[in-house]
């Protein structure tokens, strides 16, 4: 669900991995409520993932370095699309992730919340996604919602690397 800290966890994980010398790309795939790139000092409304999915723009032009972290680059969410699930379903996301993977040792996707929207389920169908880290907030995440999310992840066949509980 929203406000559970998934973007903050993604940003901090990306920063920690970059700090130990791994080349990391953080893909801001939450196009409805993007916050990861701004947490890294990148302005809103810059071109990014959504623009890459609908055009032949060069990935090099869209990957932005993170201030003070030479091994961390960000692919911002890009221009706000009218329907992000449709955009992700167009079939180019797997190709985009493959291209991004050529730039990094590790690609972290800051995905939208799993339950309220279809976007993340589209991402779970991609073979380029190796696994998932679930994020929940103590005192906020409801047990039934966590169970429902876990059920969807089990059906997806994607590996669950772990659960992060914030607060």
The residue-averaged pLDDT reads: 90
Strand order of the largest sheet: 2-3-1-4
Question: Describe the biggest sheet?
Answer: 4 strands, mixed
Return the structural class: alpha/beta
Order of helices and strands: HEHHHEEHHEHEHE
Q: Say how many strands there are.
A: 6
Distance between the termini: 15 Å
Helical residue percent band:
25-40%
What is the number of helical segments per DSSP (H or I, 4+ residues)? 8
Whole-angstrom Rg: 15 Å
Q: What's the shape?
A: globular
**Proportion of residues in β-strands:** 15-25%
Low-confidence stretches: none
Topology:
Elements: H1 6-19, E1 24-28, H2 36-39, H3 49-54, H4 59-62, E2 64-66, E3 69-75, H5 84-89, H6 93-101, E4 106-110, H7 119-124, E5 131-137, H8 143-156, E6 159-166
Parallel strand pairs: 1-3, 1-4, 5-6
Antiparallel strand pairs: 2-3
Short précis:
With 167 residues, this protein is α/β, with parallel strands linked by helices.
Your description of this structure?
The chain has 8 helices and 6 strands, in the order H-E-H-H-H-E-E-H-H-E-H-E-H-E. The protein is of the alpha/beta class and 167 residues long. The protein is globular and about 40 Å long. Strands 2-3-1-4 form a 4-stranded mixed beta sheet, with helices on both faces. It has a two-stranded parallel ribbon with strand order 5-6. The chain starts with 5 loop residues before the first helix and ends with a strand.
What labels would you give this structure?
globular; 167 residues; two-stranded parallel sheet; alpha/beta; 8 helices; four-stranded mixed β-sheet
């Amino acid at each position: 669900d929203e406000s559970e800290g998934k973007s903050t966890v993604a940003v901090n994980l990306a920063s920690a991995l970059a700090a130990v010398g791994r080349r990391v790309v953080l893909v801001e795939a939450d196009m409805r409520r993007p916050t990861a790139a701004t947490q890294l000092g990148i302005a809103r409304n810059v071109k990014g993932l959504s623009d890459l999915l609908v055009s032949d723009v060069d990935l090099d032009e869209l990957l932005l370095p993170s201030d003070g972290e030479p091994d961390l680059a960000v692919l911002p969410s890009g221009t706000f699309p009218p329907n992000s699930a449709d955009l992700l379903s167009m079939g180019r996301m797997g190709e985009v992730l493959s291209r991004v993977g050529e730039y990094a040792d590790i690609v972290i996707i800051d995905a939208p919340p799993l339950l309220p929207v279809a976007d993340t389920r589209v991402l779970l169908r991609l073979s380029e996604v190796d696994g998932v880290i679930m994020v929940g907030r103590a005192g906020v995440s409801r047990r039934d919602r966590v169970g429902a999310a876990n059920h969807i992840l089990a059906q997806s066949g994607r590996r669950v690397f772990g659960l992060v509980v914030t607060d």
